[in-house]
Write a structure and sequence with these properties.
44% of the residues lie in helices and 24% in strands. It has 301 residues and is of the alpha/beta class. The model has no long low-confidence stretch (mean pLDDT 97).
Length: 301
């Protein structure tokens, strides 16, 4: 059994991370830490595990960390955990700056721990199969992603998420779009970006070989305009990425399985490891600057 320390107490931590860890046959929830002690205690009581007042004490008590915290806080926890030799099951985006993402990568590589970043759709079997087949087919010239969500509709568990409100769709759902586009279109070399109404942000990306993609995102779409569409265009025609078929807790269980495989095999080459997480942060950070300064930026390797 791999003992996981859970960092975070919000909806995602409770209904996805904790739920999957609690039912996984080869994982054990060792305890919970959160910035709000009362919520940490309530979550810990729900799953019959201890609540920790000190993050480093929970790191000491586990074999791996599962982090469901704002990205800037996640990066610091991940560095401390990796330095202590704990394996990493992190959320997207890996960090909010390239410097912080680099710190996480350096810590993970320096200690040799396994890492998996939970880009939710990449742990859906139908999406994984689609990406493998589409990438193998080749000949793609352009991709387009439209992801219009709303965290402000009645009942949304994310309406008070301060990091989402502050950093918007670019950083919250931009990683999801990139996680589908990058495996097919390849590394991004240049990015331009601009703002639209209602929190919309548009990205235009150039990839290795000169192929392109466009991404449009918002967290404040009207209820009637909520949409998810990812399309690839090329020599083989048009392919539409399928919608996920399972819930996030089921997908998180797959992520746990894959982290266990990495640990047991001794490999450190997971397709969504911290290095891939860092690649996504590099694109998002460049896009942030591009839309602020109204210019095209080269994405650092």
């Amino acid at each position: 059994m791999l003992r996981f320390g859970l960092f975070g107490t919000g909806h995602w931590a409770t209904e996805t991370h904790a739920a999957a860890l609690d039912t996984h046959p080869r994982a054990e929830l060792a305890g919970v830490w959160g910035r709000n002690p009362e919520r940490a205690a309530a979550l810990a009581e729900r799953y019959g595990v201890p609540a920790f007042d000190d993050a480093d004490a929970l790191i000491d008590a586990c074999d791996a960390v599962a982090v469901a915290l704002p990205p800037d806080i996640q990066a610091d926890i991940a560095v401390r955990a990796a330095t202590a030799g704990r394996h990493l099951l992190l959320d997207k985006p890996l960090a909010l700056t390239l410097a912080d993402a680099d710190r996480v990568v350096d810590a993970a590589q320096g200690s040799g721990v396994a890492s998996v970043v939970f880009f939710t759709q990449r742990y859906q079997p139908n999406v994984t199969a689609f990406l493998a087949a589409t990438a193998a087919a080749g000949g793609w010239q352009h991709a387009r992603a439209t992801m219009f969500a709303s965290i402000y509709q009645p009942g949304s568990p994310y309406a008070d998420s301060q990091w989402r409100i502050q950093h918007g769709a670019l950083w919250d759902i931009g990683p999801h779009a990139l996680s589908i586009i990058l495996p097919v279109m390849g590394r991004v070399t240049q990015v331009a970006a601009m703002n639209g109404p209602s929190g919309i942000v548009h990205l235009l990306l150039t990839h290795d070989g000169g192929v392109t993609s466009g991404i449009s995102l918002t967290l404040n779409a009207p209820a009637e305009a909520v949409a998810r569409e990812i399309v690839f265009y090329g020599e083989n025609g048009i392919e539409n990425a399928p919608a996920p078929q399972t819930g996030p807790a089921t997908a998180f269980s797959v992520a746990i399985d894959q982290l266990l495989e990495e640990i047991e095999a001794g490999t450190r080459d997971h397709r969504c490891d911290v290095r891939f997480g860092r690649e996504v942060v590099a694109i998002l950070a460049a896009a942030e600057t591009a839309r602020t300064e109204s210019r095209t930026l080269t994405v650092p390797a």
